[in-house]
């Protein structure tokens, strides 16, 4: 009876973890993020926003997909409601990079980030830069770590959600110069 109760508790805890990270998922022991947005913008307009942003390189349109390389994004832990003590050390001490794919369909687009890596200065390294997959901090035995679920995933989700909501971007045009 105790074993049955233990197995039931274990299954319930696994179900609760999967509900807490709606945009993060694990693919081949690596972390990825995806979210769907409604939009009135054309993919060409969004590609131009990506080019102007400065955080995206190698922006290309191929059919209904825009691909780009994301680099040097700082996690917005303060915007997500966290302070310097309530997040993992790697959140504030590194920038985010990865591969971006925007898939368009019926007035919507899905932003997918894969190959998410963290870049930070490292004085012990001869190059002075350390690049490490976010999965090293977020996953243990192909499952989410509790520390990542409790705060860090929410910080990254907030950062990515705002970064890829192109409807919220304000394009400033000043012809009076």
Describe the 3D structure:
The protein has 177 residues and is an alpha+beta fold. The protein has a single domain, classed as Alpha-D-Glucose-1,6-Bisphosphate, Chain A, domain 4. It has five helices and nine strands; from the N terminus they run αββαββαβββαββα. The strands form two sheets. Strands 1, 2, 3, 4, 5, 6 and 7 form a seven-stranded antiparallel sheet that branches. β5 (95-105) and β6 (108-121) form a beta hairpin. It is globular. The N and C termini lie far apart (79 Å). The relative contact order is 0.19. The model is unreliable at 1-19 (pLDDT under 50).
Output the structural class: alpha+beta
Q: State the helical fraction.
A: 25-40%
Which stretches are poorly predicted, pLDDT < 50 over at least 5 residues?
1-19
Mean pLDDT across the residues is 81
What Rg do the Cα atoms give?
19 Å
Number of strands: 9
CATH architecture group name:
2-Layer Sandwich
Order of helix and strand elements from N to C terminus? HEEHEEHEEEHEEH
What is the CATH third-level topology name? Alpha-D-Glucose-1,6-Bisphosphate, Chain A, domain 4
Tally of helical segments: 5
Q: How many distinct domains? A: 1
Outline the biggest β-sheet: 7 strands, antiparallel
Query: What is the CA-CA span between the terminal residues?
Result: 79 Å
Overall shape: it is: globular
Strand content: 35-45%
- CATH class term: Alpha Beta
Summarize the structure.
The protein is α+β, with helices and mostly antiparallel strands. Helices cover about 30% and strands about 35% of the residues.
């Amino acid at each position: 009876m105790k074993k049955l109760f233990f197995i039931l508790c274990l299954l319930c805890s696994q179900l609760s973890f999967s509900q807490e990270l709606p945009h993060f998922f694990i693919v081949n022991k690596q972390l990825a993020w995806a979210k769907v947005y409604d939009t009135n913008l054309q993919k060409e307009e969004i590609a131009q926003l990506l080019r102007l942003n400065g955080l995206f390189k190698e922006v290309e349109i191929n059919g209904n997909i825009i691909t780009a390389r994301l680099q040097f994004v700082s996690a917005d832990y303060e915007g997500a409601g966290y302070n310097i003590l309530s997040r993992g050390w790697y959140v504030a001490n590194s920038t985010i990079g990865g591969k971006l794919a925007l898939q368009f369909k019926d007035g919507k687009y899905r932003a997918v980030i894969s190959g998410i890596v963290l870049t930070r200065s490292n004085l012990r390294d001869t190059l002075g830069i350390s690049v490490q997959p976010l999965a090293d901090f977020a996953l243990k035995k192909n499952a989410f770590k509790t520390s990542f679920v409790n705060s860090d995933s929410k910080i990254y989700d907030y950062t990515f959600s705002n970064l890829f909501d192109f409807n919220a971007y304000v394009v400033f045009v000043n012809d009076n110069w």
